[in-house]
Automatic annotation (TrEMBL), chains A, B:
One Pfam family it belongs to: Ion_trans_2
Keyword Manganese part of the UniProt annotation: no
Organism, scientific name: Acer saccharum (Sugar maple)
GO biological process: stabilization of membrane potential
Domain of life: Eukaryota
Protein name, as recorded: EF-hand domain-containing protein
Keyword Transmembrane: yes
Transmembrane segments: 91-110, 122-141, 147-174, 195-216, 249-270
Length: 360, 360
């Protein structure tokens, strides 16, 4: 019997002779003697060898031709395509630009209704938009009429909704990873490296803001530090803010990047902590001793032995990657498909299931 | 042979007589004749029927006695215990109280260094703490000395860090659910109901804030609306804020609950959207036609038929619940345990694995 021998990284090393000798295969104490030749001994075919090859490189087929040769596998619906989600996030800079352009146009039109120190209509409107959208809200420029107040309300409500959705979606999207992805990410220190880069960027932005406030806005050392802190955290008391043309121009870019950076910083911190937790669980599951009671619990079909798929399900359940409800759900479909109720699916089951569904 | 019969919701209906008659159990097309009597027919034992019973209620045993009778299953490490995470979140009100009490004491001590309209030392300090911690930052009370400015910096930096970690942890924690949990949650409209409750609460808080600002702070209708919007979103320009004793006392509770509510509102919106996406994927996987190519791809051990566990793994992979890397990781352990390399684990494998590890 020829099967493929696949290494643990998923690559297959060609056909290997496998011979199964089943002896006394009944009850719990069942013992199976099988032999497998290592790949370099493939010449010695028909010599009983021990290893049984598992096909690990298989994934769901892209298209499945049915009995008439038609491709019957439906495409995955767009609403569930995670690639779509990624591309949604890729649109964030576009949303942001449209949002700020619309806001700037609106506030430029009601500029005379805005109270506070003015420098340039366009610059002040854009600065007001950024300070409002990021919820810094210094209060150095405030709407002075009912119309401009309502406009500011609409602008900040829609802005925080957009921001809240983007941040939470980014957080949830990054959670769509398996325990192995997490191990890999930890191994390559991917998240830790990202966190390091964001921390450096945040420090640089902090420093640049501090320097600009001292030299352009002519603040004292402590006042500049205080203004940076109250801005990055979006606190924005407003007793210290950007009042010059140059300062406001700088503020537009600096506030957007530094508040965004701090948000990203928290996202990475949370991911790192979640990954550490999940990594500890995966390691514990994979390193603890397997006992006879484990075997009994893992034996789904009660045949006295645990096959590879049963073992995988048992371990993934222990890793809290899947749960019994997930399995029950799929088992319902399995039992419907298993027309001859043999406990296994074969081509005849599929043909029977299809012909019976055609008749109905 | 007696086993438990379990329903798809995981409950077991007591011992049921099961009879396995294995016939021609080699190669492809393997057929197993087993019998499971439904609970009400337990009297008619030994009458061969066709359905094979799958034990669905099994979970990992709590303790596993080894060959010497010692309990060898290690307890799950605390760092990976998701119950711990829940209890961490349960401590949030305690953290919040300690944080606000410490902040109020600090700012009470430097109260004469804080500029703005004062009402009562304790009340103003607590109000200043809440306005700072939530990053509303009206600016009606601002630190007027270097010491108080640095204190405010430390307070807002630690507060936003704490808040950011709590929110992101709450978001990530709620993602630790399987596709079936998600289906159940959707079916029972759990998240939708939570979202509905939070929306109602948010509307009530909005209305109460509006009314208090009109009657206690004597604002106009539009100004009160504007102040509510700028506060809930933590914008806080500060041109409209709480200036009276009663207003500030109300503000302490109102700002904390309304900003918290808005955050929770966004968390539920994000969860609902993630669940809808995952639900669509699960439904698509469970309803699409299974073909012969699917069977071939699902057959992990290449024996020509797909057993229940193989089918479950194939479908969960398609649901993006698990991936090939997860499976490979567990398969490494399986191959180490499968000492006789039979492709299945039996008690003799476990004994061999344990004796060989003892020798080493």
């Amino acid at each position: 019997m020829d099967t493929k021998l696949c290494t643990s990284n998923g690559s297959c090393s060609g056909p290997v002779s496998v011979n199964h000798l089943e002896m006394a295969s009944s009850g719990a104490g069942q013992s199976l003697l099988t032999t497998v030749d290592p790949p370099h001994q493939t010449k010695k075919a028909n010599v009983p060898t021990k290893r049984r090859g598992f096909r690990r490189c298989k994934t769901a087929p892209l298209v499945v031709p049915d009995m008439n040769g038609n491709n019957e596998k439906l495409p995955c619906p767009e609403s569930v395509n995670f690639g779509m989600l990624h591309s949604h996030l890729r649109w964030v800079p576009v949303y942001l630009t449209v949002y700020l352009v619309l806001g700037t146009i609106c506030f430029s039109m009601v500029e005379e209704q805005i109270k506070g120190k003015k420098t340039n209509t366009f610059l002040d409107s854009l600065y007001f938009c950024v300070v409002t959208m990021t919820t810094v809200g210094y209060g150095d420029l405030v709407p002075g009429s009912n119309l401009s107040k309502l406009l500011a309300c609409g602008f900040v409500l829609s802005g925080t909704t957009l921001g809240g959705l983007i941040v939470s979606r980014a957080l949830l999207m990054n959670q769509n990873v398996g325990p192995s992805d997490i191990l890999k990410e930890i191994e390559t220190n991917k998240v830790r490296r990202k966190l390091f880069v964001v921390s450096i960027l945040l420090s640089v932005l902090f420093l640049i803001g501090h320097i600009v406030l001292i030299f352009v806005e002519e603040m004292s050392f402590v006042d500049a530090f205080y203004c940076v802190c109250t801005t990055i955290t979006t606190l924005g008391y407003g007793d210290q803010s950007f009042t010059s043309k140059g300062g406001r121009f700088f503020a537009i870019f600096w506030i957007l990047t530094s508040t965004g950076c701090l948000g990203q910083f928290f996202i990475y911190i949370a991911q790192l902590s979640a990954q550490k937790r999940q990594r500890a669980l995966v390691e514990w599951v994979l390193t603890r001793k397997t006992s006879r009671l484990d075997l009994e619990a893992a034996d789904m079909d009660d045949d006295g032995v645990v096959n590879a798929a049963e073992f995988v399900i048992y371990k993934l359940k222990e890793m809290e990657k899947i749960n019994q409800e997930d399995i029950n759900q799929v088992m319902k479909e399995f039992e419907e498909l298993d027309v001859d109720q043999s406990g296994t699916l074969s081509v005849s089951d599929i043909n029977l299931a299809q012909s019976s569904s055609t008749k109905m």
